[in-house]
C-alpha cells in the first residue's frame, strides 16, 4: 500500500466529528459570557433590546438570542455593538482567561441601578466618598455577609443621593 492509501484508510476508520451546535449541546460558555456582557452594556446604557436592534437594523429577537448565547455574534457585529455602547471591542471578553472557563456571576437589577445612579453623580469628591464607603462596609461586615453589606450600602447610597438631589 502506498503512503497515500494509508491516509485514506486511516480517515475511514474514524467517524467524522460532529459540529457543536447550541441547539443540540447548549450555548458555548464564551458565547454566554459575551451575551451577558452585551446585556449588561445595554442595561447600563438604559436601552431596550428593541432600541439596540433598531440601531443596528435588526430585530429585538436577534439581540435577545445574542444575549442568551443562542446565536454567536460575528466580529463585525461585535464591533458595531462596541461602537454603539462606546466600549472597546475587548469589553465583551473581559473576565475570560485563556487558561480556564469563567465562573461568571451575574449582576441583578439592584446592582445595575446602583451603577447607573453612581454614574449620575457629577462630583468627583462625592464619588470617591461613596467608593470609600463601599470599601468600609465590606471591611466591616466581611465578604461572607454580602447580603447585609449590600442592603446597608444601598440604603446609605440612596440616602446620600436623595440629600444631594435635594440640595441641587
Structure overview:
By secondary structure, the chain is mainly alpha-helical. Helix content is 65%, strand content 0%. It has helices at residues 3-13, 22-25, 29-45, 49-55, 60-67, 75-84, 109-120, 124-141, 146-167. Helix 3 crosses helix 7 (109-120), helix 4 packs across helix 5 (60-67) and helix 8 packs antiparallel against helix 9.
Summarize the structure.
This protein has 168 residues and is mainly α.
Question: Helix count, per DSSP?
Answer: 9
The helix-strand sequence is HHHHHHHHH
- Helix % is 55-70%
Secondary-structure-based class equals: mainly alpha
Q: What's the topology here?
A:
Blueprint: H1 3-13, H2 22-25, H3 29-45, H4 49-55, H5 60-67, H6 75-84, H7 109-120, H8 124-141, H9 146-167
Helix pairs in contact: 3-7, 4-5, 8-9
Keywords:
168 residues; mainly alpha; 65% helix; 0% strand; elongated
Amino acid at each position: 500500500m502506498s503512503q497515500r492509501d494509508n491516509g485514506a484508510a486511516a480517515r475511514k476508520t474514524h467517524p467524522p466529528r460532529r459540529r457543536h451546535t447550541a441547539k443540540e449541546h447548549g450555548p458555548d460558555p464564551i458565547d454566554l459570557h459575551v451575551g451577558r456582557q452585551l446585556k449588561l452594556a445595554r442595561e447600563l446604557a438604559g436601552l431596550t433590546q428593541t432600541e439596540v436592534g433598531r440601531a443596528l437594523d435588526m430585530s429585538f429577537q436577534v439581540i435577545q438570542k445574542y444575549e442568551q448565547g443562542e446565536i454567536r455574534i460575528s466580529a463585525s457585529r461585535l464591533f458595531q455593538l462596541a461602537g454603539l455602547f462606546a466600549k472597546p471591542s475587548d469589553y465583551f471578553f473581559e473576565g475570560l482567561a485563556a487558561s480556564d472557563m469563567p465562573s461568571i456571576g451575574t449582576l441583578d437589577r439592584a446592582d445595575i441601578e446602583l451603577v447607573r445612579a453612581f454614574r449620575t453623580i457629577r462630583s468627583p469628591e462625592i464619588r470617591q466618598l461613596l467608593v470609600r464607603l463601599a470599601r468600609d462596609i465590606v471591611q466591616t461586615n466581611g465578604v461572607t455577609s454580602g447580603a447585609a453589606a449590600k442592603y446597608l450600602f444601598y440604603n446609605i447610597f440612596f440616602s446620600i443621593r436623595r440629600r444631594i438631589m435635594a440640595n441641587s
